[in-house]
Design a protein that fits this description.
It is globular, with a radius of gyration of 18 Å. It contains eleven helices and nine strands. The chain has a five-stranded parallel beta sheet with strand order 1-5-4-2-3. It folds into two domains: 130 residues, Oxidized Rhodanese, domain 1; 109 residues, Rhodanese-like domain (Oxidized Rhodanese, domain 1), CATH 3.40.250.10. Helix content is 30%, strand content 10%. Helix 5 packs across helix 10.
Length: 287
């Protein structure tokens, strides 16, 4: 299945569905969230793609009742099933996810939906800016879709835990998707310790995008990841602060033809475990 969809293609699909010409339902999910402004609901109400449904990343794409697994532990299958149904998703639907930050947050929904067994999940390339930039309209207010019937069955996407992340650089490439200054340990705005997992390589997820917020071409992504030793056939995994932008890294790696695992606990779990070693500086080989 394609991983990306353009704004014009999405608009055509929605028009066809509105006019009764569509063969497959398209559900649009809007995942507005940033570390600095986690409540994206007001921005969604102020303007979103017509028919889109708001997704609350903190409440629906994470389970904060789980202790010790980082700031955004994965929701249970049962909880994610309830979320998918609340968004109006049925088996066989095409789901398009977007946000207002180059898919840096909506990639979490893309990853979870794929992990849950939804086959056709696409990221709106360029996100909301591409939609408005192409002249397509927005609507305001809340959205209340008819309940769906889809059921989550986890297992499609590879996952590693903290022990797996610790051992990963010994046999593969572990990518850190956070900003480079956080990787180097120069700043740490959220978590208790600064630095990175020893052996991890810095590949900030923002580098997957061009100036317009669209994913780089596949060839450019392949070259970017190859510079870190991540090539097709090599085991690759990604982490970030709490498993959100690392999903964006996994998506970019997929566009480059590289299958990658996600470490959902990421730095927020690792840095809270006193026995885990921490490396600083730009050199991934430094202890």
């Amino acid at each position: 299945m394609p991983l990306l969809i353009s704004a014009d293609e999405l608009a055509r699909r929605l028009d066809d569905e509105r006019l009764g010409r569509a063969g497959t339902r398209t559900v649009v999910l809007d995942v507005r969230w940033t570390l600095a402004d986690p409540d994206g609901a007001p921005a969604f109400r102020a303007g979103h793609i017509p028919g889109a449904v708001f997704v609350d990343l903190d409440r629906q794409l994470a389970d904060h009742a789980v202790d010790g697994l980082g700031r955004h532990p994965l929701p249970s299958e049962a909880a994610f099933t309830r979320a998918m149904r609340s968004w109006g998703i049925h088996d066989g639907d095409t789901v398009v996810v977007t946000d207002d930050a180059g898919n840096q947050s909506s990639a979490r929904a893309w990853w979870l939906l794929r992990h849950a067994g939804v086959e056709d999940v696409r990221l709106l390339d360029g996100a909301l800016a591409a939609w408005t930039g192409a002249g397509h309209p927005l609507e305001t207010g809340d959205a209340e879709p008819e309940p769906g019937t889809a059921t989550a069955h986890y297992g499609t996407m590879p996952v590693i835990d903290a022990d797996g992340a610790a051992a990963f650089p010994d046999h593969g490439v572990l990518l850190d998707a956070r900003a480079a200054e956080r990787y180097r340990g120069e700043v740490e705005p959220v978590d208790p310790r600064a630095g990175h997992i020893p052996g991890a390589r810095s590949a900030p997820s923002a580098g997957n995008l061009d100036a317009a917020g669209r994913f780089l071409p596949a060839e450019a992504l392949r070259a970017r990841f190859a510079a870190h030793g991540a090539v097709p056939g090599t085991p690759v995994a990604a982490y970030c602060g709490s498993g959100v932008t690392a999903a964006h890294e996994v998506a970019a790696l997929a566009l480059a033809g590289i299958d990658a695992a996600l470490y959902p606990g990421s730095w927020s779990q690792w840095s809270n475990q006193p026995g885990r070693p921490v490396a600083t500086g730009p050199d991934p080989t430094a202890g």
